Amino acid sequence: MLVSTRFDLSVIILSNFLFILLYIFPFPLRQKFWYRGILKFLYLFVNSIALLANCVDLVYFQFTLKRTNASVFNFFSGEIGNDLGNLLPVFLKDYWYVLVIWLGLIYGLFVWYRKIERNIALDWSLKQYGTQTLLFVAAAAFGTLIYRGGFQLKPISIVSAGEYVSSKFIPLVINTPFSIIKTYDVKAIEPSESWHIEEAELRGLYNTKHWGSRQKFRKLNVFVIALESFSKEYVGALNGRSEGYTPFLDSLISKSLTFSNAFSNGKTSIEGIPSIIAGIPTWMNEPYITSPYGSNQIQSIASLLKQKGYYTAFFHGGTNGTMGFDAFANLAGYTDYFGRTEYNNDKDYDGNWGIWDEEFLQFTANTLNKKKQPFHATLFTLTSHHPYPIPERYKERFKGGSLPIEKGIRYTDYCLKRFFETAKKMPWFKNTLFVLAADHTGVSNDLFYTNNIGNYMIPIIYYMPGNNDLRGMDTTLTQQIDILPSVLSYLHYPSSYFAFGNSVFDHTTPRFALTYNYGIFQLVQNNYFLQFDGDGTTNLHHFPTDSLLSNNLIYKDTIVAKQMDKKIKAIIQTYQQSLINNQMVY
Prior knowledge:
Blueprint: H1 4-15, H2 17-23, H3 33-64, H4 73-77, H5 83-94, H6 96-119, H7 129-148, H8 170-173, H9 176-182, H10 199-205, E1 209-210, E2 221-227, H11 247-253, E3 257-263, H12 269-278, H13 301-306, E4 311-316, H14 325-331, E5 336-338, H15 340-343, H16 357-368, E6 375-380, H17 405-423, E7 432-438, E8 457-463, E9 472-474, E10 478-479, H18 483-490, E11 497-498, E12 513-517, E13 520-525, E14 528-532, E15 537-542, H19 558-580
Parallel strand pairs: 2-6, 2-7, 3-9, 3-10, 4-5, 4-6
Antiparallel strand pairs: 1-11, 3-8, 7-8, 12-13, 13-14, 14-15
C-alpha cells in the first residue's frame, strides 16, 4: 500500500493537471467568483469520474482479476456488441451499494473542497506577482516529477509495479484511473467478427496446455543467453561461410544442437525477451510488456523452475528501467535483476546503452559463481545495438564490413568467447544447459534477409558441455516461443504448464512459426508462408522455391491455403482469448 502511493500521486497529478494549473495561475482573474466556480466544478467532475472507475472495480475485479483498462471503452463504442447496455441495469440492481459508495465519495469531495477553500486565499496583488509566478513554475515542475513517478528514464507505467510485487498483486499497487489512462492510447485486441472457431474444434487445432513428464526431473542449471540483433545472416556456420562475423559462435555450434530454420517472434527487444523467457509473443500492435495485458499473470522459465528450488536471476548491462526489462523480469519470477546499477562501475559504461559486453559478461559469470545451484539465469547482451560502439582498445581489431553492425557482432562474439573461457573454470559449468538465441534480427542489405521470411530468421542453439545428445544441425522449424517448452521438456519437468510454443524435442507436434507485422499475421508451416490480415488469407508462397516471395499461390494451392488458414485462425483466437481473459497460467 505504501508503494501504491507512487501510482496514486501520478494519476492524481495527471487527471487534475488542468485544475492545478488554473488554481495557481498568477493573475488577478483568480479572484473572480465565476472563476472559482469553474475550479470547483472541474475538481468535482474530474475526480468523480476517477472515483467512479475505482468503484466499478470493487465489483468488476472479481470477474477479470485485473484492474479495468482502456479496453472498457470498446464496450461503449458498440464495436464489439452491446453487452454493457444489456447488463448495466442488472449490475445496478445487483450492486446498488457501489452507486451509494460513489455518491458518498462525491459528497465527501464537495464538503472537503469547500472546507479547504475557505482557508486558502486566492487574493492577488501586483506585489505578489513575482512570488506567484515562481510558485507557478515550481509547482508545474514538481507536478511533472510526481506524474513521472521519479527521475527514471520513462514515466511509470503498469509494468513498473512489477518492480515491487509479482503479477498477482499488481492490482493492489496500481489504481483503476491509472490503468485506464496508461492504456488509453493503446488499442486492445479486437477479435474478428467475420470468423470464430468453436472450442471443441479449437483445442484439436491448437493447444496451449503442456503435460508434465513422467521421467525423473533433471536438476540442471539453465542459462539462457539472448543475443542483441544476432541475425542468422551474420552467423557463418548457418550460411556456409568459411569466415563470418562469429568465429566463436561457429565453433560452439559444432558442439551444439543448432536449429537452422529458427524464427524470432518480433522485431524489437521488447518483443523478443518475453518470447524467449516466458513464451509470450507479440501478435498484436503493441508490445506485450506495454500492452493492456502486461499485468496478466504469466508463467516463465524462471517462475516454473523456481517452484523446483532454483535460484533465478536476469542480467542486462543496460541502464535500469530500459524498456521495462527489470520490472518484467520481476513479473516473470526472477529473484534478482542485475543491470548497470548493480554493476556499479560506470568506468565501463559505453556512453550509450550501458556496460560493455566484455566486462558485463565477466561480471555475470562471477556473480553466478557465488550463487547456489541449481539456478536459471538469463543474460541479455548489449553492445551489438545501434550505434554499435566498440571499446577504443578494439577499434582496429573489430572493424565493420559493409554494415556498421558487423563490428558490433564481431565484438560481442569475442565477448562470448571470453565468457565461456571463464565459465569453463567454474564448478557449475558442466551441469548447465545453455540456450543461445537472438532477440531479433539486425539490419541487412540482402534481398532475402529483408523480406518477410528472412527478416525474422535467427540462430537458436542448445548446448551442454560434454553432452553428445545435443549435437548437430537440425532443420526442424522452430521459433522463440518454443524455447520455454523445449527447456522444460529436456529437464523432464513434471508439472503441467501453459505455453504458446512447442518443444523441439516433441516430434509428434506439427511445427509452425508465427510473426506479426503491421496488422498482418505471417505463418510459416510445411515449407509454406501464409499471410493473414485478420479476416482472411491474402498471400501464400512456397518459400524453398520462392525465397523472395514473388509468386502468390493462394489460388493454386487451395488445399494448403485452406489448411493453413484454419491453423492460423486457431492460433490467433487462442492467443487473443488467453490475453483478454487473463488465462496464461495452468
